[in-house]
Amino acid sequence: MSLLFAYITVLFLIIRSAVGQSSYDCSEVADNFIPCVTYLVELESRPANRCCSGLQVLNQMAKINDKGPRNICQCIEDLAYTMNAPYVASRIQSLSRECHIHFSFPISIAMDCH
């Protein structure tokens, strides 16, 4: 498990520098979304508390302006592409229920941000 954590940490640092180049602050989106990845790829049976609290932060960020939801979605899409993470559709759908949250931004297996 510690090896997995080390791998995710290194991957996070690489991704953070890659997605941080966007006009929107994707590094903040990554900081808040990365804790959800182990759940989304079925390495954990439940989302971590940091995942759920990060999603709450993203919800607040999405409400700041009209482009917030689309920008957050795009950052998450870029993150998934960079990580080449095989998110499981049922896990994406269950995030809302597991974290007791309604998303203010689109999130799905297709990641249609428009």
From TrEMBL:
On whether Signal is a keyword of this UniProt record, the answer is: yes
UniProt-listed InterPro entries: Bifun_inhib/LTP/seed_sf, Bifunc_inhib/LTP/seed_store, Plant_nsLTP
Q: Which Gene3D superfamilies match?
A: Plant lipid-transfer and hydrophobic proteins
The Bifunctional inhibitor/plant lipid transfer protein/seed storage helical domain, residue ranges: 26-112
**Pfam families found in the cross-reference section:** Tryp_alpha_amyl
Q: What are its GO biological-process terms?
A: lipid transport
Q: Which GO terms describe its molecular function?
A: lipid binding
Q: Which terms are listed as keywords in the entry?
A: Signal
Instruction: Provide the leader sequence positions.
Output: 1-20
Name the family the entry cites. Belongs to the plant LTP family.
The protein's name: Bifunctional inhibitor/plant lipid transfer protein/seed storage helical domain-containing protein
Organism listed in the record: Gossypium davidsonii (Davidson's cotton)
